[in-house]
Specification:
heterodimer, A: 243 residues, alpha+beta, 3 domains, 8-stranded antiparallel sheet, 7 helices, 8 strands, 28% helix, B: 199 residues, mainly alpha, Rna Polymerase Sigma Factor, Chain: A, Arc Repressor Mutant, subunit A, 10 helices, transcription (chain A), Anti-sigma K factor RskA C-terminal domain-containing protein (chain A), transmembrane (chain A)
Amino acid sequence: MTTHLDDELLAQWAMGEGGPDESGTAHLASCDRCTTTLAELQLMLGEMHDLPQLETPPAELWARITDELSLDPEDAEDAPVAPVTRLPEERRTAASRRFRGRTLAVAATVAALLGAGVGVGGTALLRDDEKAPPVEVAIKLDPLEGKAGAGTADLVQATSGGQLKVTASGLSANQGFYEVWMINTDGKRMVSLGVLNPSSGGTFQIPGQIIAQGYRIIDISLEPDDGNPEHSHDSIIRGTLPA
Amino acid sequence: MGFARVCAVTSREADTPTPAEIAKAFAEGRPDSLSDAYQRWSTMIFTLALRALGNRADAEDVTQQVFVSAWRGRANFDPDSGQLGAWLTGITRHRIADRLTARSRELRNSEAAAKLAEERPASVVDDRTVDRVVIADELARLGDPRRTILRLAFYEDLTHPQIAEQLDLPLGTVKSHIRRGLLHLRGQLKEVTGDDTSR
């Protein structure tokens, strides 16, 4: 029985990194499966250098659909905010309504948190008439209990929409990576903005109108590189954008 | 443990239905499944319609038609023989094609535009457009750091060493995420478009 070539090796070759050695070439010559995989990866890579930016339909489209189908307005009211698919975590928002039972407890913990003023830095309104887009709000990110580090988050309005400029200091992990999240003040939902380089910081696109929807807590977590896209529950620094 | 633990909120508990679960509920006609399907696929469908039609109002109409006709025609969907995403993609292709046909008909009715109409492309959706939208949608669903790494590689065209430097991650980690990410995307692409008989 033939042992197939490792898929990751095929992916590497498809990207033009190295190529099959003698035995690899011999295997490819006689194996449809591996030849097909390699060809499909090459084809897909060819298409990946012109990927479209995803576009979210306007919020009222869901209401138009439920109207036309005469579905229960209750359902329509509970409607999904059209997902911002740049964020895998966004999908959880629809599910959150199924967990009303938990909501109170969670809301209480978040209320306690906000009451404690964790992470609410001084806010300043900065106006900048330079070419750089104006900073609307700048907040500090403060360490959570038992954690060390500091940071800033600047909300910027660029032509492409809201952006969050994040800097950090005193973050140094040997393992894993830092991830920027926006957590809803309802304590039920969060979205991931991406990976943060703790030494150089980063600028992140804020999807849609999520600040208005209550995603105002800016949270930096330390994440193990374990393939689990969920928040690790290991938050390091945090701040809250003013309402 | 204090705050670090409690405020990670319910992301883990609020488990999202998988596409297979949505498909099953959809076939059973459970109304919740339509909003789940909308949540999961509306961005992909709207982006596809927008790319094909180049007009937001038309893309909104097509997206609306896709979900309305999918819900009304849900008896025709068999969750055992195919994926709901692929089925919705097929409907989207048809609705876009209908819209393109209607447009060229309107164009032909205008005498001055008759010649132009002759030159217009056929009323079909380019397979590559579908592939690219599906890939973009699936890429956006990857967990980090893989998603950020692939975004930098394919949207920003950074080299692997540049990505490693920008994210402060080992080069080997970056390469491994890209290889595995590509394999995952290929699998997803095949599921959505591989057995789409309409192409």
